[in-house]
């Protein structure tokens, strides 16, 4: 959908039958559509999340070949520190062979810390890095991962994001490293979305309960790539938005379609005691991707996918880094 308004070939779910029954929906408003795209003109990319190690990665890559599911990015949630150098290297090499971006989570987070506030009803400070040492752990993870060839880092703290953006500008990590904001701290309004972009985020995960109108509001102030769980894990709400995909792309482009999995136990931090569950859910996430792509195709809305192998976000707005 290169044109901001949906082409005539695109139909909405159930549209012919509902129109015949006198229940046709109003035509989409072209003013609601995002005018933005990835640098190559593509409007959407794909991501398989929660790929926790080389074995799960192998399952994802095999299943994506079998089901013909193109993948732009594979992300991991347990953290760089939960992987050995050999495991990271194996994942880097496997994804590089297929020109897929690998994204690993950085450092300690508040929900695993000894601080008690995250275990209160209010949730306290959430996943943020508590204290200097937690920030240092995230930076340590970032330097180690990029030295091993990782090109994308997942971040769950504003201070860590700004610190890593400054480190990138200073050459402490490669200039083409991309920084992805976690769904667990995602912004819910256009003002905060724009702030995360200016702090250095190249890809911003928004909560999966945002409405199409919310996406339009965000797109009026920022062109930074957006990540959205089409199916969210239960701890993020368990939302399943398959039938909305075409409209989410129209409103939210440039958009990463994330294929999570509802009704599945959590696997962070991953270890071999969770092996069978992790491999089974990794395989099913790819199948969910196939279901989503088939649905887009049936509605004539599967055009304008960014070419496989693309990863950079294009020019973005940043706060000035003072010397």
Lateral arrangement of strands in the main beta sheet: 1-2-3-4-5-6-7-8
- Which structural class do the helices and strands define? alpha/beta
Binned, the helix content reads 25-40%
The radius of gyration computed from the alpha-carbon positions, rounded to a whole number of angstroms, is 19 Å
Tell me the fraction of residues in β-strands, as a range: 5-15%
Q: Which labels suit this protein?
A:
single chain; 323 residues; alpha/beta; eight-stranded parallel β-barrel; globular; disordered N terminus
Describe this entry's structure for a reader.
The chain is α/β, with parallel strands linked by helices. Helix content is 35%, strand content 11%. The protein has 9 helices and 8 strands. It has helices at residues 15-20, 54-67, 85-97, 131-147, 158-169, 190-199, 212-219, 245-252, 275-298, and strands at residues 44-48, 73-75, 101-105, 152-155, 178-181, 203-205, 226-231, 255-259. The chain has an 8-stranded parallel barrel, surrounded by 6 helices. Strand 1 (44-48), helix 2 and strand 2 form a beta-alpha-beta unit. The model is unreliable at 1-6 (pLDDT under 50).
List the helices and strands and how they pair.
Layout: H1 15-20, E1 44-48, H2 54-67, E2 73-75, H3 85-97, E3 101-105, H4 131-147, E4 152-155, H5 158-169, E5 178-181, H6 190-199, E6 203-205, H7 212-219, E7 226-231, H8 245-252, E8 255-259, H9 275-298
Parallel strand pairs: 1-2, 1-8, 2-3, 3-4, 4-5, 5-6, 6-7, 7-8
Helix pairs in contact: 2-9, 4-5, 6-7, 7-8
């Amino acid at each position: 959908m290169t044109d901001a308004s949906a082409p005539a070939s695109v139909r909405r779910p159930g549209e012919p039958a509902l129109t015949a029954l006198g229940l046709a929906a109003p035509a989409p408003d072209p003013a609601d559509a995002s005018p933005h795209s990835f640098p190559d003109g593509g409007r959407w990319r794909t991501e398989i999340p929660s790929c926790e190690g080389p074995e799960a990665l192998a399952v994802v890559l095999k299943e994506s070949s079998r089901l013909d599911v193109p993948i732009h990015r594979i992300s991991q949630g347990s953290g760089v520190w939960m992987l050995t150098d050999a495991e990271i290297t194996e994942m880097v090499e496997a994804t590089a062979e297929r020109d897929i971006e690998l994204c690993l989570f950085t450092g300690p987070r508040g929900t695993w810390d000894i601080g008690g506030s995250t275990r209160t009803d209010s949730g306290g400070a959430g996943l943020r890095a508590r204290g200097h040492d937690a920030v240092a752990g995230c930076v340590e993870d970032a330097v180690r991962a990029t030295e091993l060839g990782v090109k994308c880092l997942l971040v769950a703290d504003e201070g860590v994001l700004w610190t890593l953006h400054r480190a990138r500008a200073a050459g402490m990590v490669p200039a083409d490293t991309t920084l992805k904001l976690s769904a667990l701290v995602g912004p819910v309004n256009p003002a905060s979305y724009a702030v995360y972009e200016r702090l250095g985020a190249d890809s911003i995960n928004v909560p999966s309960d945002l409405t199409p109108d919310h996406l339009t509001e965000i797109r009026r102030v920022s062109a930074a790539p957006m990540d959205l769980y089409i199916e969210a894990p239960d701890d993020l709400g368990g939302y399943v938005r398959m039938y909305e995909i075409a409209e989410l792309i129209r409103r939210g482009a440039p958009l990463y379609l994330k294929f999570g999995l509802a009704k599945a136990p959590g696997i962070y931090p991953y270890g071999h005691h969770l092996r069978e569950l992790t491999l089974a859910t990794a395989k099913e996430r790819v199948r969910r991707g196939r279901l989503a792509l088939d649905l887009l195709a049936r509605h004539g809305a599967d055009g304008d996918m960014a070419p496989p192998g693309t990863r950079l976000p294009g020019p973005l707005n940043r706060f000035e880094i003072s010397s």
